[in-house]
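Honest question from a wet-lab person: if I give you the sequences of every part of a complex, can you actually get the arrangement of the whole thing, not just the pieces? Trying it with mine:
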Amino acid sequence: ATKPKLYYFRGRGRMESIRWLLAAAGVEFEEEFIETAEQYEKLQKDGRLLFGQVPMVEIDGMVLTQTRAILSYLAAKYDLYGKDLKETVRINMYADGTLDLMLMIALAAFKPPAEKEEDLALIVQKAQTRYFPVFEKILKDHGQDFLVGNKFSWADLQLLEAILMVEELNASVLSDFRLLQAFKTRISNIPTIKKFLQPGSQRQPPPDSHYVEVVRSILHF
Ligand SMILES: CCCCC[C@H]1O[C@@H](O)C[C@@H]1SC[C@H](NC(=O)CC[C@H](N)C(=O)O)C(=O)NCC(=O)O
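Yes, you can. This is the full assembly:
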């Protein structure tokens, strides 16, 4: 069978959670990195970007866009989406929260240096005062190894991704969250995730100025 193919810039952005999900599911995937306006315009001209936007993923004979739609499809396809609707809606709630947090970080990369530093400090504070306390309490009240049911789901995966992303900004951000520290260790040790966290995997590094310039030049913003 042909492997899923991902079309996005050579960076995290909105595609990184899709890379994580496929990797956690043990699914090999290919990537086309959009490095030039020509590549991007060709995808648009060929009518493969529904609203003219990326991320775009080719999978199962379909050409998918809209990050959340793609993530939901993959979560359901790889049985990471709960055993019933009540579990699925909780997974969506948690995943949306961590996605909001990660997108704040992703977009801060495009701010001028002074504003970017200020933004990132605010984001770390929001992680510590809004997001992480919520997940610490869920783990405490739920009393299981995972956020939903007693099974690894997309919500767990995205929380780990968000924890690591915030720790890149402030290494001691989990110091007051004992259950989240244990959660991070537990989920990081899932074999497919452990492998993805090793150097040489398809995980993208934090956004750097080159990445920002490429995206700006292609998207003219
Ligand atoms: C670090 C990278 C994140 C910052 C840059 C990205 O965040 C977005 O604000 C821009 C890019 S992602 C690229 C952007 N894609 C989207 O905004 C997709 C939004 C959609 N709702 C989704 O969830 O997939 C894009 O194609 N824009 C062209 C344009 O709309 O004409």
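Two things worth pointing out. Residues 11-14, 52-55, 66-68, 106-107, 109-110, 207, 215, 219 surround HAG (CB under 6 Å). The chain has a mean pLDDT of 97.
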